UniProtKB/TrEMBL annotation:
Protein name: Beta sliding clamp
Highest taxon above the source species: Bacteria
Alphabetized Pfam families for the sequence: DNA_pol3_beta, DNA_pol3_beta_2, DNA_pol3_beta_3
Domain DNA polymerase III beta sliding clamp central: start-end pairs: 130-244
Organism: OM182 bacterium MED-G28
Chief place of localization: cytoplasm
Family: Belongs to the beta sliding clamp family.
Alphabetical list of SUPFAM superfamilies matching this protein: DNA clamp
Top-level taxonomy: Bacteria, Pseudomonadati, Pseudomonadota, Gammaproteobacteria, OMG group
Quaternary structure (record): Forms a ring-shaped head-to-tail homodimer around DNA.
GO cellular component terms given for this protein: cytoplasm; DNA polymerase III complex
Listed InterPro entries: DNA_clamp_sf, DNA_polIII_beta, DNA_polIII_beta_C, DNA_polIII_beta_cen, DNA_polIII_beta_N
Length: 367
């Protein structure tokens, strides 16, 4: 194996692929990136057995085909440390990867490509095509509500529900829920529900760019694959049953308020400074045309905020985890938010007044 490549061309796919590789591995080869040169295309593959990412880059000039695995982190650190416009020569001699650039010389340990694990190939069941920008917006609008290290492992991920004419993504940690639906054609015969793991969602989001065109999502029984010209991403699906989100969506709320997103977010952020660091609870009191936000903590410190809102129902007092409200208000891209409530023991439904299909549910807290 032998080729020359500019630092710039190698660095971008190497950075993306190295993000998948875990630092601590049970199998030494999983700390490595697989380099495969065929004709004039170099592919770089990283995996942690759950998620796999393949980056592709063209190699110009004379080259010799081959395949090898090298430590991902070390190769990335070497490439980062070289000057911006440098050229890199790579060859494999006596089971060592030799890297030359200017006056620098490096020799890296390798492991045979045959030891590198393959993602099991399986038949695809259905697919859909979506723009990278739109998919990234969907993930950004909902991914914050995924659980982290919950024993209910199916919550540590995101539900993709695909029908013949829509894609719906749902994330929940049991205390709050985020959901958005997009009208889109797919090849799904009937409604399908699949759960992507948290790491898969994070790596997929990193892959998407504003300048990128369409991305094809292909779903199998146990995997999802996303393909764009320079990368192929594959993730295993979570084997589990996602909770019925329709039962969580509040029905029949008769108290509706609307307010400025930015103003409410800033008020909640200020009040949160003096909330209990463990429980993060704030008390919200609604009366005609105004919202009062109260926070206190075990040190007997208190905060009070007054915000003007459109509200003309009965007075209401309700408690919330302030972090959950701030997360939603930070995610909404509209100027105003609509909040639907029914009583102090029922969840609140938050949504943009216009421009977004996203729905957010936040459970109340007893204070």
């Amino acid at each position: 194996m032998q080729f020359s490549i500019s630092r710039e061309a190698l660095l971008k796919p190497l950075q993306m692929v190295s993000g998948v590789v875990e630092r601590r591995q049970t199998l030494p080869v999983l700390s490595n990136v697989l380099l495969v040169l065929k004709e004039s295309e170099l592919s770089l593959t990283g995996t942690d057995l759950e998620v796999e990412l393949i980056g592709r880059v063209q190699v110009h000039g004379p080259s010799e085909a081959g395949e090898i695995t090298v430590p991902a982190r070390k190769l990335l650190d070497i490439c980062k440390s070289l000057s911006d416009d440098s050229s890199i020569e790579i060859s494999v001699v006596d089971n060592k990867l030799k890297l030359k650039s200017g006056r620098s010389r490096f020799s890296l340990a390798t492991l045979p490509a045959a030891e590198f694990p393959d993602v099991d190939e399986e038949p695809d069941t259905f697919s859909l095509v979506i723009t990278q920008v739109r998919l990234r917006e969907l993930l950004e609008a909902t991914s914050f509500a995924m659980a982290q290290q919950d024993v209910r492992y199916y919550l540590n991920g995101m539900l993709f529900e695909v029908g013949a004419d829509y894609l719906r993504v749902v994330a929940t940690d049991g205390h709050r829920l985020a959901m958005e639906t997009l009208k889109i054609a797919s090849s799904a015969k009937d409604t399908q529900q699949l759960i992507l793991p948290r790491k898969g969602i994070m790596e997929l989001a990193r892959l998407l760019s504003d300048e990128g065109g369409d991305i094809e999502l292909t779903f199998g029984q146990n995997h999802i694959r996303a393909a764009i010209p320079e990368f192929t991403f594959t993730s295993k699906l979570v084997d589990g049953k996602f909770p019925d989100y329709n039962r969580v969506l509040p029905k029949g709320g008769d108290r509706v308020l609307s307010g400025a997103c930015q103003e409410l977010r800033q008020a909640f952020s200020r009040a949160s400074i003096l909330s209990n660091e463990k429980y993060r609870g704030v008390r919200v009191m609604l009366s005609d045309g105004e919202m009062r936000i109260f926070a206190n903590n075990p040190e007997q410190e208190e905060a009070e905020e007054l915000v003007s809102v459109d509200y003309d129902s009965e007075a209401l007092e309700i408690g919330f985890n302030v972090s959950y409200l701030i997360d939603v208000l930070s995610t909404l891209t509209s100027e105003r938010v609509k909040i639907t409530l029914s009583d102090p023991n029922s969840s609140a439904l938050l949504e943009a007044e216009e421009g977004s299909e996203a729905l957010y549910v936040v459970m109340p807290m007893r204070l």
